Amino acid sequence: MDRVVIGEAVELDVRTARLPSRALGIGLDILIMVALLVGVLLVIELAGAEVDDALTAAVGLAIVVGVFVGYPLLWETLTRGRSPGKYAMGLRVVRTDGGPIVFRHALARALAGFIVDFGLLSFFTGVIGIVVSASTARGQRIGDLLAGTIVVRERLPRTGLPGLPPPDPRLAAWAQRCELADLPDDLALAARQFLVRAAQLAPPMRDRLGGRLAADVAARVAPPPPPGTPPEAYLLAVLGERRRRETARLGGSPWAGAPAPSSGVAPATGSAPPSGPAPAPPSPWAGAAAGATPPSRWAPDAPSDASTPSSSPGKSSGFAPPG
């Protein structure tokens, strides 16, 4: 993942293309260009025009430059950064601020690719483009550095957690109302690694580690899970919802990850909002790591006697009789 700052000074997370996918896309484009070049040369040969050697060399050079420069220039200008090879690999060329490229960006990339990256200076081996792309943080070749562009992945991964079963539908519906902004990346990664390797752990260690991770996640996620939720099912639902929101956000949906509207009763009119941050609810798996019985967070509250006047002797009710 990489961060792109757009013109409105907003950071976006994008998935930049790396060397293997770019190499496959460029290889497909080169095959098409070579086939196009051979076809044009065959047409000229079959025409049978009698010209001298100098004119033949000039025409041949013009055809080579026209194919290897005009092909990417035409495709990337008309399709805003996509050639047939990039389309097959799910890639697109964009500006470093995330905007679409125009003619001048495509021209700089095409000329640098023909002269430096893959053509004349690299003896048509592409070694310069490969070395530069592997050395830069965003996988940019010289043409990208000169044009101010990057190549990003346009096909995003599917929602869900690869290698893991889908979460329970009821827990998935509950997770859509959760607040996940306080869940750090390292804790989410640790929970995912645990779920992937849970089947390889001994049962006592699996239960103890799952309870500990579920307690850490529950301390940063609200609202609390339904009563009786197993730790692994809870972690699977939270991580699945987190990945769904990230994927939807990368896809550009403005309503991605928005919590579902609450169906509860509206608060009474005139009630003052609580001041300060709300205290974190206790974890249902607290004490799981130590082997203690976790406290029930869904136990009914004890009846309050705040509204009952005290009748015990020695206690004042706060009422003063009139003089």
TrEMBL record:
<keyword id="KW-0472">Membrane</keyword>
<dbReference type="Pfam" id="PF06271">
    <property type="entry name" value="RDD"/>
</dbReference>
<feature type="transmembrane region" description="Helical">
    <location>
        <begin position="23"/>
        <end position="48"/>
    </location>
</feature>
<feature type="transmembrane region" description="Helical">
    <location>
        <begin position="110"/>
        <end position="132"/>
    </location>
</feature>
<dbReference type="InterPro" id="IPR010432">
    <property type="entry name" value="RDD"/>
</dbReference>
<protein>
    <submittedName>
        <fullName>RDD family protein</fullName>
    </submittedName>
</protein>
<feature type="compositionally biased region" description="Low complexity">
    <location>
        <begin position="251"/>
        <end position="273"/>
    </location>
</feature>
<feature type="compositionally biased region" description="Pro residues">
    <location>
        <begin position="274"/>
        <end position="284"/>
    </location>
</feature>
<keyword id="KW-1133">Transmembrane helix</keyword>
<feature type="region of interest" description="Disordered">
    <location>
        <begin position="246"/>
        <end position="323"/>
    </location>
</feature>
<feature type="domain" description="RDD">
    <location>
        <begin position="20"/>
        <end position="148"/>
    </location>
</feature>
<feature type="compositionally biased region" description="Low complexity">
    <location>
        <begin position="285"/>
        <end position="323"/>
    </location>
</feature>
<keyword id="KW-0812">Transmembrane</keyword>
<feature type="transmembrane region" description="Helical">
    <location>
        <begin position="54"/>
        <end position="74"/>
    </location>
</feature>
